[in-house]
Structure prediction request, 136 residues.
Amino acid sequence: MHIMLIGIGLQLAGIMVYIILGTEFELRFHLQRPLRSKTLGRSSQADSSSSDIEKPVNIIEGCGGLTRRQSIMVTGLVISTATVVIRSIYRVIELAGGWNGVIITTEKYFNILDAAPIVIAMFMLNICHPLVMLHE
Prediction:
């Protein structure tokens, strides 16, 4: 029992690290503040020729240069991650109550807080699949 609780706790901790890093990346991307300067290690000639690079088509205003498909994909990933976090929190609480606890023995809690989030995450990743959303 304790090993399972530790495993689910580690899974939740890993997901939280993923969320923190993903949030930092998104903020840096939208605010256009990378960790390194764009001019690091480049000459002024290289910078002047880099302005010829084509920008993605169908850029959504205010989305930091994401195309509509990329924005949909990121939204799908956020929803999927949120549902997995809900499930993980439920599992930690469920296992903390033991094998005979109220939460682990109540089927409606399982259906709503365990099965439903995974079904939603599965559908979101199928609808907003990166291969489909990143394909031009």
Q: What stands out?
A: DSSP finds five helices and no strands in the chain. The mean pLDDT is 83. The two ends are 48 Å apart (CA to CA). The CA atoms of residues 98 and 120 lie 27 Å apart.
